[in-house]
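In the lab's daily routine, each protein ends up as an entry in a very long ledger. A line of letters takes care of the sequence, but it says nothing directly about the fold. The fold becomes a row of whole numbers, each drawn from a learned catalogue of backbone shapes. The protein below has been through that process, and both of its lines are reproduced in full:
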Amino acid sequence: MSTKPNESRNERLKAALRDNLKRRKAQGRGRAEAPDKRASALDPAPQPEPDPPGEP
């Protein structure tokens, strides 16, 4: 087996992992800076209190 194909594959993998890490770090920074919209979307809207019986 030749090491040349393995070397080029390893270089491609290193570059892909490096780019992936950069992208994930940028996403993490964006999530840390932005308000958490998912939590508010999952929380139900507050419901009004029902009127007590006997009052109009």
Observations:
- DSSP finds two helices and no strands in the chain.
